[in-house]
Amino acid sequence: MNDISALQTCEEEWRELEKEFVELDEQHKNYVNKVAEVKAIQQKCLSGIAHQRYRIKQIGDALKKLSKGAGAEGQATIDDLKKQFRERKNNFRDMEDVLPHKNGIYLSIILGQVNVSLLSKGDKYLYKQDYEKFKLVLTIITLFITFFLLTVVNFRFVDAAFHFLLVWYYCTLTIREHILKVNGSRIKGWWVTHHFVTTVCAGILLIWPDSVTYRLFRKQFMAFSFHLSIVQLVQFYYQRGCLYRLRALGESHNMDITVDGFQSWMWKGLSFVLPFLVSAYLFQLYNAYTLYQLSYHPDCEEWQVPVLSMFFFILFSGNIWTTLLVVWQKRKAKMDTKRRFDLTNKYRLNNKENKDL
């Protein structure tokens, strides 16, 4: 009797489950249809933006021809239209933030044509936060490993494992950074190239044989890695504070990320962070010099020595040049702003004196 009752209960539960499945099936079909609709709308938006850009370019070309013979009133109209064009292009960029982007050459080679565009701003921000957490955790791990290798262990196979970790870390960073770029992050220029060069350096260190020159350079490189980890930690917390403050003031993009260097938005507190960065850059120059000297060592037979010397010098040159360029541009912008402010005050003062007369 109990078995029959239990069987009936199972049948009733199954029937209830079938009803729920019918609803679930309808919801899934509705979801599939909505996804197809979203993709169609995305393509319409992308086509519309491309069309708008093309028409604006045509109108802009026509205005260039008209501006040569335009009078004062006509030139004012042309300037007003150009201002509206710039505002419209900013609108396009805002629209494209939530639309799919092409992967680019690097991601296409690594991932193929997989769509890595995140449609939700929340998802993009979470991915950015995950990137920052990944950098922080690996930097702390590197700090402890290099200290351990400097003070306790001195085996080539352990060094090789550490170098492999660096290769994996920097390869992963380059992929993640390009995904962030697809999703609106503004990391660019040297700071993208920097991680490619660093990946190559780590790869060369990985395959460097356990030779006399390797042993002569090993301690210096571990000390450099330890120092670099400390600089990156200081830089990470400093940049995160800068970005948090700028986002609160509405002066920063949500997808701006911490980088292994100096950028214009880091101007406030320059005297704090710049000495740490310069010390790391000078250490890279010292590595290049040491390796250059080792390339003339009587026991040097490895091609890795001069090649690594060249790459460390490239890292130093790129880092120091980019940092100095950003500092110069920022100072120039501040001087231009001050000059405009002084001219405005002088103009107002002259007007006031003319009115008094």
Structure explained in plain terms:
The chain has 357 residues and is an all-alpha fold. Helix content is 81%, strand content 0%. It is built from nine helices and no strands. The protein has helices at 2-67, 72-96, 104-111, 121-151, 156-182, 190-207, 212-248, 270-294, 304-356. The longest helix is centred in the first third of the chain and has 66 residues, at 2-67. Mean pLDDT is 82; it is low at 261-265.
Oligomerization status of the protein chains: single chain
The profile of the biggest β sheet is: none
Helix content: over 70%
Low confidence ranges: 261-265
Quantity of strands, as a count: 0
* Strand residue percentage: under 5%
What best-fitting shape do the alpha-carbon axes yield? flat
* Terminal Cα span: 114 Å
Structural class by helix and strand composition: mainly alpha
The number of helical elements comes to 9
What is the rounded Rg?
29 Å
Mean pLDDT: 82
The string of secondary-structure elements, in order, is HHHHHHHHH
